[in-house]
Design brief:
Length: about 525
């Protein structure tokens, strides 16, 4: 499952509304900076800062970014370096986006549209990557699949069944509440449209409404409540709730439905060798709302300084698009084959912004991660958004069995928020001294979305591509470094944080930042390039 989630705006809202009616750089000797005494940013971020905060510098801007802009200004200085292929295993990518169309990988050995496997890699017409999902969109969660299998002897079956039943029990009443709120908003919208004789009535008109009509008075009070929740109008609140309601219905009808099967590729997901080459070469999202992969790709490689909406971290990469993550939990078979596809077709960095709490065939994915490691490819994985300690609670895919790693080029990333201080760790982010390696900007990240649009998303899904971009940037400037060296540079060159932070969004859970990851650091592109220059000598 894509593991960034739009914040649910309506959990508290529901109760309130119903009670009343988301070339090598030069060698430098600059020391790695320690930021223990850096002042906390005062006030809200400007729009420019909000759109670029992950690239800012903690010392200069008092925002815990990765010093990307500083790295370009002081180290790279326009040098492109060597091109690096970065594979994005996700929900599909809008490869026609104005900020991405120039950075999409094209298979040099494949002839488009001839219906042949020209390069003999087992995939027909894989021009820009591969789509392991075919036309599928919705899918079950892994725990739902486990329960649907009826294999009561399977590991964690009882746990999965209990969790599935609990979620269904909780979401049913929530759906009813959302429907009631949406009904109230729809009635208010219709009443204001009639009263003002236009569907484009403004919030100011509603605020200034003077009436003796009791219904309009109630609808005006409802609009004031929406304003209190940060929603500017009834129309905006209606749109937000419709999205939340649709997502909840999707979850009940497909993700949590033991009778649902969204698979369209005709293969057996429990047989790794069944139907080789299943899927197709269309790497575009199935729906515009399937924006996750496009957003991730932009964080890594949106064309820099072209006057458009966003800048990627890396300036000389090609994005290999691999669609393997549905609206539900990804199949282990798809992920394992996607990793191997990326490695075999030239990717040096793989980004995996997905994850789940159950795994039917974790060994397939671990073997693929080891395959990538053995071939000198870095796999960057999002830590997850459950506010949990992944040293003690499972999160897949992982690269270890009982903390013994199967490879040494896997990097798991937690998420930072744009505020240095006790709240710098995003409340949703997973953590783990043994199983999370570094932290990077992940909350409120601005990037590309389908159809030449841009938007802000939050999740460790956004933190992982930030680190993948830094890995590509290092390799581009210092192509002779080994994958293990690039990983270690990212780990060792980060900014050390010695202070305590709020963990899991729980104000009562305050821990030293050093407890949350192996490196006890936040990723820093400038320092990484400094260290890379020293090691590459």
């Amino acid at each position: 499952m894509r593991i960034n989630y739009k914040p649910i705006l309506f959990s508290a809202l529901a109760a309130i509304v119903l009670s009343s009616c988301t070339g090598a750089a030069p060698i430098l000797s600059t020391p790695i900076e320690n930021i223990d005494n850096t002042p906390i940013k005062e006030g809200d971020l400007t729009e420019v800062e909000a759109h670029n905060w992950g690239h800012l510098d903690l010392v200069k801007d008092t925002i815990p970014g990765m010093s990307v802009d500083k790295a370009y200004a002081e180290i790279i200085k326009g040098k492109k370096g060597q091109q690096v292929i970065v594979a994005v295993i996700d929900s599909g990518i809008d490869i026609t986006h104005q900020d991405l169309d120039g950075v999409i990988w094209t298979n040099p050995k494949e002839i488009a549209g001839n219906g042949k496997d020209d390069d003999g890699n087992g995939y027909i017409d894989d021009i820009h990557g591969w789509n392991f999902l075919g036309d599928a969109y919705d899918e079950q969660l892994e725990m739902t699949r486990l329960v649907a299998s009826g294999n009561t002897a399977a590991p964690r079956y009882a746990e999965a069944k209990a969790e599935l039943e609990q979620q269904i029990e909780q979401l049913g009443p929530t759906k009813t509440r959302y429907e009631q709120i949406y009904g109230a908003l729809t009635e208010a919208d219709a009443a204001f449209t009639t009263h003002f004789k236009t569907k484009d009535y403004t919030s100011d008109q509603v605020k200034g409404l003077q009436t003796t009509d009791e219904n309009l008075k109630q609808y005006k009070a409802l609009a004031a409540q929406m304003n209190g929740f940060g929603l500017s109008s009834i129309q905006e609140a209606k749109g937000e709730l419709k999205g939340a309601l649709d997502g909840l219905i999707d979850r009940l009808n497909s993700n949590l439905n033991v009778d649902f099967n969204g698979r369209t590729t005709g293969d057996n997901t429990n047989d790794f060798n069944d139907k080789p080459g299943y899927g197709n070469g269309n790497v575009m999202p199935v729906k515009k709302s399937e924006s996750h992969g496009t957003h991730v790709a932009g964080i890594i490689a949106a064309e820099r300084n072209n006057g458009l909406g966003a800048n990627g971290v890396a300036n000389n990469v090609k994005i290999m698009a691999i669609r393997a993550v549905p609206n539900g939990d990804e199949y282990d078979k798809d992920i394992a084959k996607a990793i191997r596809y990326a490695v075999d077709n030239g990717a040096k960095v793989i980004n995996g912004s997905f994850g789940k709490s159950y795994s039917n065939h974790p060994e397939w994915v671990r073997e693929a991660i080891k395959y990538a490691s053995d071939k000198g490819v870095i796999f960057v994985h999002a830590a997850g958004n459950d506010s949990k300690n992944v040293d003690t609670e499972p999160n897949f895919p992982d690269d270890n069995v009982n903390y013994v790693e199967v490879g040494n080029t896997y990097i798991r990333v937690g998420a930072l928020a744009p505020s240095y201080g006790s709240k710098m760790v995003a409340g949703f982010s997973n953590f783990g001294k043994k199983n999370v390696d570094v932290f990077a900007p992940g909350a409120s990240v601005y990037s590309t979305t389908p159809e030449n649009e841009y938007g802000t998303k939050g999740g460790t899904s956004m933190a992982a591509p930030a680190v993948a971009g830094v890995a590509a940037l290092i390799w581009s400037q210092y192509p002779k470094l080994k994958a293990t060296q690039v990983k270690q540079i990212i780990m060792d060159s980060g900014l050390p944080i010695s202070s305590k932070v709020i963990v899991g969004g729980d104000a009562k859970n305050i821990q030293p930042f050093a407890n949350l990851s192996t490196s006890a650091k936040i990723t820093n592109a400038y320092n990484a390039l400094v260290m890379a220059s020293q090691i590459s000598k």
